[in-house]
């Protein structure tokens, strides 16, 4: 039974890879290593896995169910499933959250775009190069960061203009598997460095004494960020999906790929960090300092670095595509508006909103919000307040508002899981997910 939408995923694999692309991106490859490095290593990783499986996976299934059950984009989905009520605020929350997320996400995407260009021309890996200084130079130059921001958003607008099947799905089918292959190659090289064992111990050997209440909040936020749940992005994606796809199995596949890529990222980064005496709590620039160091030790390192950066850029783009898609679809569905025009206008607005974050390491370095730069403040607001808030609202919607018949039908289509799994999932969503989010959030504030 196909959906009534004109544009839809052509295959189950295309949907899973595109959803994985939306989930993986910066969350697993860029943010996960430095958040792990700043929050105790192995203990943070273990907590991240637990939150992903117990909280993130049920929420991903929930967003899939809402989207395919309504066959509408985020705002319209909640309006259809809960008419004449205020629940559509969840969809609006997602659109606003995606906009804010894009405003700093695109800055990092711009960094990767700039690094990709520099690497293609052989300007990254050099004998005696100081890669930490290179990162400071790139991010500290207003013209470079603004140019990267423009280029990154331009690519997003072009792809989203082509729609689901011809834009997002085709590219995901080709480039996501290549990213996995290159990551595995990088891991094999990283773990053979002298001193790599210390990095592996830091990443894989939990030390719970390093955890704080704030670290627990960060781990929860990281699980939401890396699975792209909380902003109804997956509601929009699943609204393009046919009924012959198992939503729990698809969500499980996406979650497993996300954990696997996070594992690969840690295995690739931390052995290099400790081998070369770098600081694991190196912050947002950690990846950009470590990757060149690792590839410089390989034959044809500059070529491999260029290919990896291009694939990494693609992974970031697949995530940003999902964010721009939720914004674009919110203003085009059931309206006589051009997808291309809406995507272009959204891109322009995001560009202006992203300028302060882009200048956080240069012109606006001294401008602070609660002692944080604009970039860091936006990241904290999105990852640790808006995403958990959106997830809490979705859990409450599933547990106390959405029609149970629709939920059970969507959960059960093409599903080979035991029949009792629906009730397990529902009880987790109704009680465990919201209670956990509230406890972790209050604990981070020192209330409990």
From TrEMBL:
It is a multi-pass membrane protein. It comes from the Bacteria. Keywords: Membrane, Symport, Transmembrane, Transmembrane helix, Transport. Its main location: membrane. It is found in: Membrane. Belongs to the sodium:neurotransmitter symporter (SNF) (TC 2.A.22) family. This is Transporter.
